[in-house]
Each structure stands twice: as structure tokens, then as C-alpha cells.
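Interim report, section 4.2 (structural modelling).
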Amino acid sequence: MDGETRPRRTKILYVEDDPSSVVLVRRVLESEGYQVIAAEDGLSAIEIAKREKPDLILMDINISGLDGYEVTTKIRNIPELSSIPIVAVTAATLKGDRERALIAGCDGYIPKPIDVDRFPYQVQAFLLGMKEEVESVEEKIEYLAEYSRKLVDRLEEKIRELEAAHAELQRIDKMKTDFVILASHELRTPLTAIYGYAQILLSNSDIPGSADEVGSPRFIIDKMAEATRRLGQVVGDIINVSLIDADKLDLATEPIFLDPLVRNVLRNITGMGPERKLTFEVEGLENLPVVMGDSQRLYQALWNVISNSIKYTPDGGRIRITGRQIEDTVHIAIQDTGVGIPPEERERIFDRFYVLEDTALHRSSKTAFKGGGLGLGLTVARGIIEAHGGKIWVESEGYDEERLPGSTFHVLLPLAEQ
Ligand code: ADP
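Predicted structure of the assembly:
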């Protein structure tokens, strides 16, 4: 058939979940030159019909999920499929099956088991436009009423199933959250003890060496204390995210001056980790009005955002924190001259466990350039800010390690009511 286009074979979609029926119908129809596509349940039948645009659909009624009546009604209501002839092929069990099929939108009815000799002629007749009708108007009304009652019953049953599944999911989710909170608290207690004892040891002048003398007892205890503190922070982040998820983040609200809070964060961050050559600018915070909030939690939120701006800005860069009042809110902007964030990631970075860079390059430092974390920092920050009735979002021209477009995180907090 070089160069010639073969005429398109007539395409028949057979919706049937019994493989042996599919084999039989396929054999009979393919030997007549038809192309047969099979679908084994209602939802995939609708998808395949949309994709393949068959010339005729043979519909078994007793299929799983949506049944054949419902699939027919659905297909009749899809404009590009509505004129495809649909023929019910099903074991005649109850009186009125034919009428039910016609009411649902079928053009005809072929009882199973099929008569192999007659079947191709029956199919051809429907392909040529044959349509069966319910004889009397009274019957039609009666079957229509029965069909709509059945649909409502099925809808009710499905809603009940969905509600039960939803309740079960919520129960499992709560179990998970409770477990995470409990396990994290259990971890935190011994961690606090280890950290406390390490501090006691460090305050003892008999411990030889210094924190800078690699390998000396004092150096080792200092490193242990630092590692324990970091571990405590990770556990704290996990607890916070679980509390935010479970809507259980309680705020100990009090009036807060943001200027000392931000300066405190900066002092504590820059005092940790490797020495970085960064310039810090703070402007406009000292004149800000008081906000009502939980100072420990707001400290944590700002800590997470500011430590990120340090982590993602190479040496020589600048971090600028500005504050101003906009109507009844306080706006704090944390602007860096770092690597920036690609547009498609600007919302996702606030998702749980979201880290942008390759986890193989992960370095667990809070201040080293691109030192990674668990991907919880911004989730916690957003959870805390939103629990205060505020908002947090980011602006950035994009990600570029050469050009360094930078990022600006915006935080809005409502003012204390007068
Ligand atoms: P992590 O604890 O891993 O730092 P975060 O939730 O704090 O997680 O941040 C998520 C991701 O957002 C980071 O892995 C990083 O890719 C990106 N990101 C956050 N802040 C900045 C920033 N100031 N500049 C560039 N990328 C940032």
C-alpha cells in the first residue's frame, strides 16, 4: 500500500470488565474488519471515548465504578461525543432492562450471550443509524423517575463513602501529628539535659584547652554542645510544623517592639557559625508602633527568614532589613543580594520539606553559604506569621548564581488595635 492512505477502519469501543467477553466480541468484530478498543470500567471508558472518538460504543451495564447506564448518560452530555451511537450489551436479567438502557441514553439493546452470527449485522444496523425507542409515554415517565431515584441513591451512597474515607484520613492524620509531637517532645528532654551538662562542663575552668584548639577537651565539648543545640533546633522545627498543621499553635500574646527583636535575631545569628563577609543594614524599625504577638515565635519566624538571606547570599553581599507602617499594618522587608529564587518556586519554598537545591550538596549549617536545612524554615515562618493574622511572601527576579539578583521577603503584621 505504498503512498496510499489506508481507509480508516470503523472504530468500536467495547466497555466490558469480563475478559472472555472482550476476547469473543473482538474476534467476531475484527474478522469483519472493525477496529475494537476495550475499556474495563466506567471512568476509563469516558477517557478513552474522548481520546479515540469511536464510531460506536458497546456498553456492558454491570461494570465497576460508574455503571453502564451512568457512563451512557455522561457520554450523551459530552458535546463532542453526544452523537456516537451507544448500544447496551448485557445479560437480560430483569424485566425492563432494555427500557432502562434506552432511558439512560442508549440507542439500542443487544442481550448477552451474543448470537455470533447475528451480532455483526446488529452492530452494522446501529452504525447505520438504527434507534430503538421506549414504546409508551407512560412507561418512559415511569422509567425516567426510577432512573433519577437510582441516581440520587447512588449519589447519597458515594457521599457517605467519601465522608467515611475523609473521617478515616483525618483520624490517621491526627494520629501521625500526635505521634510526631510526642516523639519530638521525648527527644527534646534528653537533648536539653545533654546541652545543659555540656554548658556546665564548659563553665568549669579546669577543662583544658580552648574552643579553637582542635582536639582539646574544651574544643570537643564545645562542638558537642553546638551539635546538640542544632539538633534541638531541628526537633523544635518539627514540633512547630506539626503544631501549625494541627492548628494548635498557641500564641502567648504581648506587646512587642520589633526593633530590639530584629536586632536580637541579627546579633545571635551573626555570632554563630563561620565568619561571613556580609554587610547588614537595619532601617526604619525603631519608629515602628507596637504590634501584639508572641515574641518567641516571631523571633523564630524572623530568625528563619534572616538566616536564609544569609545562607543564600555569597560573601561580599548585603542584607537590608527595613520597616515601615502601612495603614494598620507593619511591613518588614528582608532584602538580600543573594542567588535569588526562580519564579515557579516562589510559592513552593513555603511548602513543608521543600528545598530548592540538590540534596546531595546538602550542608547542615544555618549560616554557611547555601548551607541546607530540612526545608521547614519557611513553612514555620509562614505558619507563625499567619497565626498572627499576617502575611509573608517573596519577590525575586529569578535564580542566578553569577548575576545575584537577590530576594526580598515581605512580612506584614497587623497593628495592635487601639
Ligand atoms: P531550609 O531549612 O532548607 O533553609 P526553608 O524552608 O528555610 O528551608 O527554605 C526553603 C528553600 O527556599 C531553601 O532550600 C532555598 O532554596 C530557598 N530560599 C529560602 N530563602 C532564600 C533566599 N533568601 N534566597 C534564595 N533562596 C532562598
